[in-house]
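USER: Please consider what follows.
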Amino acid sequence: MPDLLVKLLELPDSRSLIAELANAGILIRRAQPFEATAVCDFIVENFSQGWADEVTPAFSRQPVTCYVATCEMHIVGFGAYECTRRDFFGPTGVSDKFRGKNIGKALLLACLEGMRDMGYVYGIIGGGHILDYYAKCAGATEIPGSDPGIYTDMLEG
């Protein structure tokens, strides 16, 4: 899976999407340090222990580099950046029940905006196996020669 590049200075504005989700009862917000266990538990239950491990560094940063989507005080999705490597987006995921509502797109854009706010001009999506999705949501393009990228020779857990 090749890595993808996103021009952070040309991101679509996320405010109307985030407001639309809020009107539907789904809040997109930065996670708090004291929510690390709840977020990691959600990730383990819905995705994998590896992803939970990968997100852990987000909670030691200030500000936290993880966003969550919540509905009725429950986590329904997450997106993180500056975890696996500097200037990398991911991992990210939305629970099955809440997919198809643009929550993933809102989390992606919130994270990419966070990267831009850190001063990055370009962002990297590592192992972007859904290129069409990332291209449509954020204008991502494949980085030539980036396959297999950093996700090689991984230990099995």
Q: What stands out?
A: The helical segments are 15-23, 36-46, 49-55, 103-117, 131-138. The beta strands are 4-7, 26-30, 66-71, 74-81, 88-94, 122-125, 141-142.
